Amino acid sequence: MNREERRRIARKDVERYRTQGLPPRLSLGAMFAHTAALRGILERKDDPERGTRLALAFHAGFERSMANLDAEPRVACSAGCSMCCHNWISVTAPEVFVIAAEIGRRATATDDAARIARAALAGKGLDRDARLDRRLACPMLASDLCSIYAVRPLACRGFFSLSLEACQAVFKGEGEDIPAWRSAMLLRGIHDRCMAAAIQAAGLAHGAFEMTEGLTMAFADPGAQARWLAGEDVFAAATHDGQDDAEENLFREVLIAGAAGKRLPENPWTPTA
Ligand code: SF4
Fold it and tell me: Which domain holds residue 240?
């Protein structure tokens, strides 16, 4: 593929991104555009709530991409089914800020924060499997429905089971694998990567960590968003997802360079002429 052809594909991808969001495949041109859009929110230095706004844009971007996927007819998920809400939930710092703000506006905020802190303590030190083994319910569940549905993290938005029986077996400890809607999972990973790159490009802590621990820290520190925006890793003490490998780090560098219109580092994803 020559340079002109690559540019033509990139232009088409960006055009598609503007109207339909990201496709469920590696589409660097569109990912550069999305990373740049997210990064732009963090550049509005006069907005003290730009972390919260970034999370809202992150979620809205994902929903737009999902709305343009061909529907998966076999999705087994339905309201009131909450087995997957007994799990480890990863979040980014901006997602913590948006959930904390939502809960903080409620009349039940003090009780909610106490319940979340108890859940954080119960899950402290447990990995994903241990959490599932203990059936630790997410403290946002209320009568088997998500009480923060509008601001739920991307980790929750992007998982769709294709088999109720498989979910039940895993929940009972009798199975290991749940067939998932692959395109939604791909989109989740693609959006996650753009978000991490946008945050890193702004010089801020981009790691993902366990939700209840992050929320407990945010409730204890009303200045958490301001300090995170100032470059402090305010959630460093929360249990983080595993370390990114060299390939993931390089991919983020590519996104950061592409979003800024700079020369890309040598990488295996951009075809050379
Ligand atoms: S945040 Fe909502 S959707 Fe996500 S695990 Fe908790 S209750 Fe379930």
Answer: 3-259
Exposure on the CB side of residue 44, measured as CA atoms within 13 A: 13
Residue 39 in domain: yes
Q: How large is the greatest C-alpha to C-alpha distance in the chain, in angstroms? A: 60
How much distance in Å is there from the Cα of 194 to the middle of ligand 1? 22
What's the CA gap between 17 and 28, in Å, rounded? 11
**Residues in the chain, overall count:** 273
Q: What's the domain count of the chain?
A: 1
Q: Decide if 269 is inside a domain.
A: no
Helix (H) or strand (E) holding 142: strand 141-142
Q: Which of 141, 143, 160 to mutate to test the pocket of ligand 1 (most atoms within 8 A of CB)?
A: 141
| 266 in any annotated domain | no
For ligand 1, say whether the CB of 141 is within 6 Å of any of its atoms: yes
Residue 268 lies in a domain: no
Tell me the pLDDT of the chain (273 aa) as tens digits: 777 887 888 888 889 899 999 999 999 999 999 999 999 999 999 999 999 999 999 999 999 999 999 989 899 999 999 999 999 999 999 999 999 999 999 999 999 999 999 999 999 988 888 888 898 999 999 999 999 999 999 999 999 999 999 999 999 989 889 999 999 999 999 999 999 999 999 999 999 999 999 999 999 999 999 999 999 999 999 999 887 899 999 999 999 999 999 999 999 998 765
Q: Of the residues 59, 81, 82, 85, which should be mutated to test ligand 1's pocket, given the most ligand atoms within 8 Å of the CB?
A: 85
Question: 107: exposed, middle or buried (C-beta count within 10 Å: 0-12, 13-18, 19+)?
Answer: exposed
Ligand 1 binding pocket includes 117 (Cβ within 6 Å) = no
